[in-house]
């Protein structure tokens, strides 16, 4: 896959989820239904692309131990979020109304380990790992110094109000579009050796 496609498509799919989520709630409740399922599938697809993006960022950082650990953490977080949204999709498909969907989701969450992994801790690994990778690249001067600020704003937006997810996704799209230029260049050449660093930005 061309890295640029993943860097652009991941925030666009997140944007799609955010917009669909707002539209789904115009009637006062969200899910179950086509909008609920479509929006969640878009977000799950975004998580798959984010995993690819994280490992491209690791490559841009030279594939060192630190970037590898951070990429693993971010990937674990993406898998946790994908699991959470898969639960929502399944609950939506098996339910006839919002109440029954909520009850089914609660029943699934009561499974030992599910709440901890997919809701309470796991998703935060995605945010921490993503930000750490971008900061590492900025410190190493692989990307523009303002990029981590936009990524941080995107990560904060849903915690302020989930209706701000589309705005955060647009900020992420701007930052990822910038990173994608460097990622494409990095992907077109062999991984650098320990004595051959990736050129820095000037």
Low-confidence stretches: 191-196, 198-202
| Total number of helices | 8
Radius of gyration, in angstroms, nearest whole number = 18 Å
Q: What's the end-to-end separation, in Å?
A: 28 Å
Give the helix level as a range of percent: over 70%
Mean pLDDT: 91
What's the total count of β strands? 0
Give me the secondary-structure topology.
Layout: H1 3-24, H2 34-60, H3 65-93, H4 98-109, H5 114-120, H6 122-139, H7 147-160, H8 165-187
Helix pairs in contact: 1-2, 1-8, 2-3, 2-6, 2-8, 3-4, 3-6, 6-7, 7-8
Write out key terms for the chains shown:
single chain, 202 residues, mainly alpha, 8 helices, 0% strand, disordered C terminus, transmembrane helix, transmembrane, membrane
Short description:
This protein has about 200 residues and is mainly alpha-helical. It is built from eight helices and no strands. The chain has one domain (about 5-185).
Verbal overview:
The protein is built from eight helices and no strands. Mean pLDDT is 91; it is low at 191-196 and 198-202. The protein is 75% helix and 0% strand. Helix 2 (34-60) packs antiparallel against helix 3. The chain crosses the membrane at residues 34-55, 67-94, 124-143. Keywords: Membrane, Transmembrane, Transmembrane helix.
């Amino acid at each position: 896959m061309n890295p640029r496609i993943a860097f652009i498509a991941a925030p666009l799919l997140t944007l799609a989820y955010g917009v669909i989520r707002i539209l789904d709630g115009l009637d006062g409740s969200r899910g179950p239904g086509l909008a609920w399922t479509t929006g969640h599938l878009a977000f799950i697809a975004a998580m798959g692309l984010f995993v690819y993006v994280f490992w491209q960022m690791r490559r841009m950082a030279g594939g060192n131990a630190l970037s590898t650990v951070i990429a693993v953490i971010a990937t674990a977080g993406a898998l946790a979020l994908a699991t959470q949204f898969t639960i929502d999709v399944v609950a939506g498909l098996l339910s006839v109304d919002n109440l029954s969907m909520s009850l089914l989701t609660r029943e699934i969450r009561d499974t030992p380990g599910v709440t901890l992994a997919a809701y309470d801790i796991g998703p935060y690994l995605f945010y921490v790992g993503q930000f750490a990778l971008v900061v590492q690249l900025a410190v190493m001067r692989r990307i523009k110094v303002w990029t981590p600020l936009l990524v941080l704003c995107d990560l904060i937006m849903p915690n302020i109000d989930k209706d701000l997810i589309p705005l955060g996704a647009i900020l992420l799209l701007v930052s990822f579009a910038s990173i994608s230029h460097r990622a494409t260049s990095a992907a077109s050449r062999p991984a650098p050796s320990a004595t051959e660093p990736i050129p820095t930005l000037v």
